[in-house]
Write a structure and sequence with these properties.
mainly alpha
Length: 236
């Protein structure tokens, strides 16, 4: 739970939600569904969402399932998400169109606490370790005798000259993880509503917004145009 309450987990969560809204990402998902005979909109969501679903053709075909997992791993690497997180998140979205994050021990975070000695002596699956090295390429090695104050002081005094330069060295162009902005849920709901009617004229959208949200939702034409511009860009 301490991971889930951290700011970096919240950034991670917003990044995933932004992916779900991105047209190019959803085009990839639809293509994977077609390739593996999964309904274009995914299977109906249910209380227990088996992965793979009972009716999925690749459930009883080990080779097809391996091919499916290869595609999921490619997505994880492309969007800079650790393998354990990516397999759970993307499988659930591909199969069921579920946007609810599947929480596992990997933490879904921009930072990770790991026992390096244990990993070295009893390594996980090779793909998982390589994934962690790609997603978390910078390490602050901590002595078991360091106090919390020692650790915080070290980060505070070395961040600008040691940690940040390494971060910049390993950043990939165009990756927005860590930059996803927090949005007011009610405002975003309204913006999603406006975007869902982007094929209509500004006047028609203004009337629909006024009808749905009443006086509090009244927007002028310039504001509606700006919202459409922002939402189109966010979903590219």
């Amino acid at each position: 739970m301490s991971n889930l309450n951290s700011n970096s987990h919240k950034k991670f969560e917003r990044y995933i939600q932004d992916l779900y809204d991105r047209k190019s990402f959803n085009d990839e998902i639809v293509e994977i569904r077609r390739r593996f005979d999964i309904p274009v909109a995914g299977y109906p969501q249910r209380p227990v969402m088996d992965c793979p679903p009972l009716e999925c053709a690749c459930r009883d075909d080990s080779e097809r399932f391996k091919e499916f997992m290869t595609e999921v791993k490619k997505l994880s690497k492309k969007y800079h998400i650790s393998l354990l997180d990516g397999v759970d998140i993307f499988s659930s979205y591909i199969y069921y169109n579920s946007k609810e994050l599947v929480i596992n021990h990997s933490g879904q975070n921009l930072c990770m606490c790991a026992d390096l000695k244990e990993e070295y002596e009893d390594p996980f699956e090779k793909d998982t370790i390589e994934s962690w090295n790609d997603i978390y390429p910078i390490a602050v090695r901590i002595s078991p005798y360091a106090s919390k104050r020692d650790i915080l002081d070290f980060v505070e005094k070395t961040f600008k000259h040691h940690i940040e330069p390494l971060q910049k060295l390993h950043r990939a162009e165009g990756v927005t993880i860590g930059k996803s902005r927090k949005r007011d849920e009610s405002v975003q709901e309204r913006n999603d509503f406006i975007y869902s009617h982007e094929d209509k004229s500004i006047k028609e959208i203004r009337e629909l917004v006024s009808e749905k949200y009443g006086f509090d939702g009244v927007l002028d034409d310039g504001h509606i145009s700006k919202i459409l511009q922002i939402e189109r860009k966010r979903r590219q």
